[in-house]
């Protein structure tokens, strides 16, 4: 608003905001830790016969869906959310393991205890990844890089698993960095290096830019971060609407978000984008079961209670539909949550078109994370 009163252009206002926040952002020390093929790695750890073999966690039947894949399986093109029959066709020697969320949750708790020894500013994103603000060097290790190295060593020692980490001065760059040298890698993007790092990346690496978005950008001559940075804000808004502001900042390595350990959630949920569009009832119900397992694990971890369950479907033409059911009492457990989710799905059948994404959310929440230190209680951010 002030920019308009002063007669400053909108892009100049953005540039001024970037300059005003660059110093503060540069003072932050952010680590993004991401476990390597977490579910599959736990299965390989606990069953030595699986080590070095292509492993998928999920259903192995014709209606099954891959929940996670080991790096050995990924070399064959196997990915999460892929139908099991497709995964088996790509990798005939693929070994399927049933999911064990109680074990994954226990290991995740061990990892988060390690995080909290270094900082109270931990923002979990899921069981296997989190942001940490280590601006305050609690153990006087000398740098965020040294802290990330110490955390990765302790994770290996305690869990016999590997983690990759990205270190930078904001969340956007730290998350990009954690994926740069996977598996078991570390990447550091120092203050002043963000814009140059982003410039060389394909836009498909930007969080939120999916395959269709990348295709649209390619048609507009945008294939890298440098291409994106060369477009002004009016152009981006004309072509990408409300997503434009994020793209404008991201192309310059700017992210103003703080690590929020006390973030209050209004809902908990999860969604999966499928490798191949789904339309048949069997695969749809199998995908629903997989999402229920993941989401209910998050709900239990957060000790949350809610009254409304919402189903989200994204069709192959990118149109989104949703259905919700509210009940007068809190959802009593996983069985009732599953019953409501499947009932909502049944109401949509037969589908008018195949779907590329399914999500399930519990809202109208109450609940907090279990106690960790003394009497302090933290609200858990999972999704």
Automatic annotation (TrEMBL):
Enzyme class at the top of the EC tree: transferase
Could you tell me which InterPro entries the record lists for this protein? DNA/RNA_pol_sf, DNA_pol_Y-fam_lit_finger_sf, DNA_pol_Y-fam_little_finger, DNA_polymerase-Y, DNApol_IV, Rev_trsase/Diguanyl_cyclase, UmuC
Cofactor: bound how, per the entry note? Answer: Binds 2 magnesium ions per subunit.
PROSITE patterns assigned to the protein according to its UniProt record, in alphabetical order: UMUC
Compartments where located:
Cytoplasm
Q: Gene3D superfamilies in the record, alphabetically?
A: 3.30.70.270, 3.40.1170.60, 5' to 3' exonuclease, C-terminal subdomain, DNA polymerase, Y-family, little finger domain
Question: What UniProt keywords apply to this chain's record, in alphabetical order?
Answer: Cytoplasm, DNA damage, DNA repair, DNA replication, DNA-binding, DNA-directed DNA polymerase, Magnesium, Metal-binding, Mutator protein, Nucleotidyltransferase, Transferase
- List the cofactors: Mg(2+)
Q: Does the keyword Transmembrane apply?
A: no
Please state which protein family the record places this protein in.
Belongs to the DNA polymerase type-Y family.
- This chain's protein is named DNA polymerase IV
Give the gene that encodes this protein.
dinB
């Amino acid at each position: 608003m002030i920019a308009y009163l002063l007669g400053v252009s909108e892009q100049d206002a953005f540039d001024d905001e970037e300059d005003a926040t660059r110093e503060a952002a540069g003072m932050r020390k952010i680590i993004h830790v991401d476990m390597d093929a977490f579910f599959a790695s736990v299965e390989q750890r606990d069953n030595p016969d699986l080590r070095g073999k292509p492993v998928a966690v999920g259903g192995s039947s014709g209606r099954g869906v891959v929940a996670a894949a080991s790096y050995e399986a990924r070399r064959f093109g196997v990915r999460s959310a892929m139908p099991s029959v497709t995964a088996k066709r790509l990798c005939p020697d693929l070994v399927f393991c049933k999911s064990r969320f109680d074990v994954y949750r226990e290991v995740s708790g061990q990892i988060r205890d390690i995080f909290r020894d270094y900082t109270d500013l931990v923002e979990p994103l899921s069981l296997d990844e989190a942001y940490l603000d280590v601006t305050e060097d609690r153990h006087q290790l000398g740098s965020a890089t040294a802290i990330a190295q110490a955390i990765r060593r302790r994770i290996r020692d305690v869990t016999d698993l590997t983690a990759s980490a990205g270190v930078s001065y904001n969340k956007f760059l730290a998350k990009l960095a954690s994926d740069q040298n996977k598996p078991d890698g570390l990447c550091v993007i120092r203050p002043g290096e963000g814009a140059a790092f982003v410039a060389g990346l394909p836009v498909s690496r930007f969080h939120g830019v999916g395959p269709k978005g990348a295709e649209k950008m390619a048609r507009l001559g945008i294939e890298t971060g440098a291409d994106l940075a060369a477009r002004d804000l009016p152009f981006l808004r004309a072509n990408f609407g409300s997503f434009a502001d994020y793209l404008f900042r991201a192309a310059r390595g700017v992210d103003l978000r703080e690590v929020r350990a006390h973030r209050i959630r209004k809902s908990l949920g999860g969604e999966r984008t499928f490798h191949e569009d789904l339309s048949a009832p069997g695969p749809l119900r199998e995908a629903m079961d997989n999402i229920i397992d993941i989401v209910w694990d998050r709900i239990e971890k957060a000790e949350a209670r809610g009254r409304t369950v919402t189903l989200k479907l994204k069709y192959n033409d990118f149109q989104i539909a949703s259905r919700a059911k509210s009940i007068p009492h809190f959802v009593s457990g996983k069985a009732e949550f599953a019953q409501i989710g499947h009932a909502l799905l049944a109401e949509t059948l037969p589908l008018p078109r195949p779907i590329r994404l399914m999500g399930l959310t519990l809202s109208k929440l109450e609940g907090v994370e279990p106690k960790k230190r003394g009497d302090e209680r933290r609200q858990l951010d999972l999704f």
